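Lab notebook, page 48
Experiment: co-folding of the full assembly
Goal: obtain a model of how the components sit together before planning crosslinking
Operator: M.T.
Materials (sequences as entered):
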Amino acid sequence: MPDTPLDQDEQEILSQLAAAIIPASDTYAVPGADDAQIVRDMLGSAYAGLAADLASFAAFGVEKAETFRHEHPMTAGRLERLVVECYYRDDRVLTSLGLEARPPFPKGFEVDQGDWSLLDPVRAMVPIYRAVD
Amino acid sequence: MRGYLLESHRGAATVETVMTGLEWEEIPWGPGHHAAARKLHKRITGFVAVCEDMPELHNTVTLDPDLKDSNGIPAPKISYTLSENSIKMMDHSIVRITEILEAAGATQTHAVAPIEYGGWHWLGTARMGTDPTTSVVNEWGRAHDVKNLFIVDGSIFVTSSGLNPTSTLQAMALYIADQMKQRLETLFD
Ligand SMILES: Cc1cc2nc3c(=O)[nH]c(=O)nc-3n(C[C@H](O)[C@H](O)[C@H](O)COP(=O)(O)OP(=O)(O)OC[C@H]3O[C@@H](n4cnc5c(N)ncnc54)[C@H](O)[C@@H]3O)c2cc1C
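Observation: model returned without errors.
Model output:
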């Protein structure tokens, strides 16, 4: 993958698409997916064929984004994944969701314990498998 | 006929939640995105049913007459149609899974069958059996027709097994290797 997989025009289309999917929100105090830092992340994560997918979106334009989404679900799905993956690993976005802005490894997370007694009937069951010799 | 395995999944993490919400149109594009995504976040989980597809003659892997790789080797051509039995199994599993999820407090459920993305278990193209007219390898993995050919992979399954197959596949590999060792003297007879 070259350093900048998209030319200037294509980058502009990517930003428009990103904002069409996830715009900024004052209510939740989060940037849109067209935030410069997030777009940079998307450029670094670009997949082969991204430019062609963006051209397909550009043929509809932002006003007809919904039509594009419904008429080209596979293309829209690939673009959505790129936008969503990069958006939802941005520290600001993770923090706004109440998550710690860090990967699970190596510190791990405390997992809430459920009601383990729900498994008592299962544990009490006779084996449903054949014992090995 | 036959059955399926129900596999319960842990709750989806953030990206998977949003992708699922978009796919099911629970999450729109545009200004409604954030509220909808937050409604689902940490609140979705799922089940998978792994159904036992039976061996059916209408499902085949043949050599593609046109498509070839860069070495001129024909590509495999897969013809696959879901049988009535498999469709009934999937329908049955959806009803059971919905019951389980609703009993656990689900307020909304979605079903996708068969899945578009994810694990399809391609098994059984060189099935094991004692009868050379209905199987490709014998009961210890050697091809009926070619005495120095052993097939040791998922193709020797006789059905799709209705389970995640890899552990069984590994056990079969150990079993066949052991059989070869024990039969060294007469292996190719
Ligand atoms: C998306 C997905 C998810 C799955 N999830 C699970 C799961 O959670 N649990 C589970 O138990 N099973 C799962 N399965 C099924 C499981 O992965 C397969 O059944 C299993 O890997 C098959 O093993 P195999 O050895 O038969 O074939 P493969 O693992 O496919 O191995 C075949 C090998 O042959 C190589 N090869 C092909 N052509 C040539 C050639 N001409 N020359 C040399 N080498 C060649 C290929 O590169 C490959 O490495 C999943 C399958 C998929 C597709």
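Interpretation: Chain A is about 50% helix and 0% strand.
Next step: discuss with group before ordering constructs.
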